[in-house]
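Q: Given only this backbone (422 positions), what sequence would you predict?
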């Protein structure tokens, strides 16, 4: 236990939806809070594909963590890489800062892309899970088009093609956004390139896109993407990724230097050091109140956790809304323990799922199974995501960027800035 503190010390590991949701809700819990993330910003992952396709600037999707806790007198924010969690000693170690001890610990370290052992995927594919991923992809796309402008033989070699793996929301949204970038912006920037020289291919292993949605939505999504010039291929699996081509399991080869990977997640590798039996995707199983079995002072929330739906062995999905609500619940559980009261089980309030395909095209499905498609769903999607962005400033930036892009198809972020010294 920490000495010299007047109040119990809560360490929150991770400043994503789960970590921020916890720390913000500990304000009146009578505890000192230390939140640590490897970055000094919170990332709004649902809009990363908009950064990657120049629709939003980085500062609309990444927000300074310190800013979020300015009026939280007992909260401290540090950037640091967590390297070890010692549950017995109640201690967390970091790469370049002194270890810290805790009275309560919240593990909200998220997940990362997994490549399922596909040859070459880890080296050559572009995952879309962090702000750095999105910026890297954006620069790569812009630089590839400029390189092809200098050397048109690259176009014949398929350099401008994009392949996207995964027909879930990340893949569908990325494909739709890439189509808008290619068919509305680059078509003006590079008028000599024809659409068949810059293909966008979306690949899904299962029989359909957006498998978690009802069939009318799945059909609409496929149609909306196809109308936007995306080639949708289902029942196909990637076998091998090389710098300039991707080979499907069927043997078909597509020439491309850009494979966006939206296919799978695995929990943060640090959880392997906890010494607990992990669930599918290396997720950490929790008790109903989100604590770790045998450690009532440790809570696990968000993508890193495996929390089952009451009365079933089905786990809650890895979604921002789940992470945010779980963080809030962990904070309330800690407050109850501090006050000497029993904790309660976590109940997720499912408000539905959404995905956007492009301007005026989105899909939404409520918990009860009601569906929305097209412009109405798109407006609803915009309203929900604006409400979720962390601050008024981020919302204003997103509104300006979306509105401007909506009217003009303009994307002013499509420049590549070289940072190497001349
Ligand atoms: C492209 C994309 C689109 C999505 N769209 C939606 C959507 O439309 N709706 C929805 O509800 N959900 C969506 N999600 C899912 C949602 O973003 C995640 O479920 C949510 O971010 C999980 O929150 P978390 O706090 O568990 O993890 P994260 O948000 O990933 O936060 C984990 C934090 O831990 C930090 N961290 C990791 N390792 C270390 C370490 N060793 N040391 C220090 N810090 C570390 C990271 O920097 C990060 O800030 C999307 C996800 C992606 C990738």
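A: Predicted residues:
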């Amino acid at each position: 236990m920490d000495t010299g503190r007047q109040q119990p010390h809560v360490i929150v590991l991770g400043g994503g939806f789960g970590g921020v949701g916890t720390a913000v809700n500990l304000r009146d819990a009578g505890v000192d809070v230390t939140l640590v993330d490897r970055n000094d910003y919170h990332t709004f992952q649902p809009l990363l594909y908009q950064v990657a396709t120049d629709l939003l600037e980085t500062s609309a999707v990444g927000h300074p963590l310190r800013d979020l806790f300015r009026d939280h007198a007992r909260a401290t924010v540090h950037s640091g890489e967590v390297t070890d969690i010692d549950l017995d000693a109640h201690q967390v170690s970091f790469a370049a800062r002194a270890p810290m001890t805790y009275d309560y610990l919240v593990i909200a370290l998220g997940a990362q892309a997994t490549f399922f052992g596909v040859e070459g995927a880890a080296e050559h594919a572009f995952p879309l899970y962090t702000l750095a991923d999105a910026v890297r992809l954006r620069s790569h796309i812009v630089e590839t088009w400029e390189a092809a402008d200098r050397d048109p033989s690259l176009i014949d070699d398929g350099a401008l093609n994009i392949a996207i793996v995964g027909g879930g929301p990340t893949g569908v949204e990325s494909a739709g956004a890439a189509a808008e970038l290619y068919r509305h912006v680059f078509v003006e920037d590079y008028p000599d390139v024809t659409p068949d020289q810059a293909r966008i291919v979306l690949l899904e292993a299962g029989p359909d896109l957006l498998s978690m949605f009802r069939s009318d939505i799945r059909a609409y999504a496929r149609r909306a993407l196809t109308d936007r010039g995306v080639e949708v291929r289902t029942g196909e699996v990637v076998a091998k990724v090389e710098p300039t081509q991707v080979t499907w399991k069927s043997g078909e080869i597509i020439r491309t230097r850009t494979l966006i990977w939206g296919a799978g997640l695995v929990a943060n590798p640090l959880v392997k050091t906890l010494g607990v039996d992990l669930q599918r995707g290396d997720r950490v199983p929790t008790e109903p109140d989100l604590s770790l079995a045998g450690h009532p002072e440790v809570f696990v929330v968000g993508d890193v956790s495996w929390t089952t739906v009451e009365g079933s062995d089905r786990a809650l999905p890895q979604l921002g809304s789940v992470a945010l609500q779980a963080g809030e619940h962990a904070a309330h559980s800690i407050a109850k323990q501090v006050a000497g009261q029993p904790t309660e089980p976590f109940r997720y309030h499912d408000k539905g799922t959404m995905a956007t395909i492009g301007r005026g095209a989105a899909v939404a499905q409520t918990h009860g199974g009601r569906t929305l498609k097209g412009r109405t769903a798109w407006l609803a999607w915009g309203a929900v995501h604006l409400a979720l962005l962390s601050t008024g400033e981020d919302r204003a930036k997103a509104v300006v960027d979306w509105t401007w892009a909506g009217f003009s198809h303009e994307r002013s972020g499509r420049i590549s800035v070289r940072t190497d010294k001349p």
